[in-house]
Amino acid sequence: MKTNGNRPHRSTSTRVLTVAACAPLLALLATGCASTGTDAAAASSAKPSKASKCGLGNGKTATGPAIKLGAIVSDTPGLSFTDVTDMANAYFSCVNANGGINGRPVKLVVEKDALDPQLTASLATKLIDTEKIVGFTASSSVLDCSVNAKTYETKAVYGIDAGLALDCFNSPAIAPVNVGASYSALATAQYLLDKGAKKLVVFTSNTPGSNAINASIKELGKKAGVPVTAWVENVPVADANGLALKAAQAAGAGGGVVVNLNAGEALKVFKAIEQQGLIDQAIWGCPAGCNDQSMLQQLGSAWDGKLGVNAEMNLASSPGPDNQLYLQLRRKYAPKTQLGNFGQLGFTAARIAVQALLSIKSGDYTTATVGAAFKGVKDYRSDLYCKPWYFGTQAFHTANNTTRTITPKSGQWTQTQDCSEMPALPNNNFAKIRAYEKQIGLG
């Protein structure tokens, strides 16, 4: 079942979603009313829709030779994205229990990299030449796109991934389902400006691509006529108290700060900000990595309405059918993943890939047929998105260029800004992308 996404607009109205004690999840793989604490926190007072189905949804176990897809994911201390691949595998498990791809199972071969370019390059070679994958799905690696994008283009192996580096969004062979670290930080900075910030401060984890992220926010500041202070920060964060004070002082009165760290590291900083009484010294924001239920539960009420977090996907408490399926599959297959953004991205990448694979009528699953099917996705609609997703024919891809902003309130994430377009700047392709969307009837 597909639903239309919301149309983008600017809004600062707040929508509060309250907790239901045990919302019924009507779905293909219902697991009863009992739930973990994080699942309960995600329940909404709105009546949940009937969940979407997994693939064919026929309840038959897929058999025969597996259709192999690949993923490269970063997994290092303070910087792990395995929730993406774990939830992609959860969706594929459900698909394989419901007819697979016209009877055949899907297998996601996941390789973990570190911040080592040689290792990342070797993993791509292994997946393509040894594992004989026919496409990539749910890759989420700091280095993969920067190191391997040209290889994927040359070998015509296409990917529907969760991009991190800007190179993921500037390759004809890769179409991310998300907005990525740079654009999520940009959307967060735009939110701070919308809230009245007179200066922008951003600090980003010291990983490849960090300077490009900061440069994008400097461009936004130039367009808005506000000064920008930016630096990179080593992770794990060694001195959260010092970092919190430095950020508040850099922002000054009326300034806004983008804390561009993943949830675990950002939480250290937010706790230090609270302990030093600095919450009201600036307007605080964090990109999509902070859209994490575990972090939410540890923030505490002092941050209610005081922190804007970019949401690449809809609230985990949203009642739509795709989100209901995500919640169920997480409970059944991947309960150790954190509830929120990264898991939703892996689920979405896998779901789009399955839709593409099911469109191949020949029964021949090769890099050529799968690549054509991936590129042929042009109007994927989901309640998790603000607008339809597509692969596109351009050499750059950011179909998910309209996102929400959420804030903590009474132990829940609540929406504080509705679907809003990310700003078009000289160093991004959003103006061209939106012109292309109009050409294909999605603008």
**What's the shape?**
globular
Intertermini distance: 22 Å
Helix/strand/pairing category: alpha/beta
| Helix run count | 13
The CATH topology of the domain at 67-178 and 317-377 is Rossmann fold
Radius of gyration: 21 Å
Average pLDDT rating: 90
Strand order of the largest sheet: 8-7-9-10-11-12-13
Q: Which short descriptors sum up this protein?
A:
three-stranded mixed sheet; disordered N terminus; globular; Rossmann fold; 13 helices; 17% strand; seven-stranded mixed sheet; 443 residues; alpha/beta; 36% helix
Structure write-up:
The protein is α/β, with parallel strands linked by helices. Among the domains are: 67-178 and 317-377, 3-Layer(aba) Sandwich (Rossmann fold), CATH 3.40.50; 183-310, 3-Layer(aba) Sandwich (Rossmann fold). 36% of the residues lie in helices and 17% in strands. It has a seven-stranded mixed beta sheet, sandwiched between helices. Helix 8 (263-275) links the parallel strand 9 (255-260) and strand 10 (283-286). The longest helix has 18 residues, at 341-358. The protein is globular and about 65 Å long.
Secondary-structure map:
Elements lengths: L36 H6 L24 E10 L2 E2 L1 H15 L9 E8 L3 H14 L5 E2 L6 H12 L3 E3 L12 E3 L3 H15 L4 E7 L4 H15 L3 E6 L6 H12 L3 E6 L2 H13 L7 E4 L6 H7 L7 E5 L9 H13 L7 H18 L8 H9 L26 E8 L2 E10 L8 H10 L4
Parallel strand pairs: 1-3, 4-5, 5-6, 7-8, 7-9, 9-10, 10-11
Antiparallel strand pairs: 1-2, 11-12, 12-13
Helix pairs in contact: 2-10, 2-11, 3-4, 5-6, 7-8
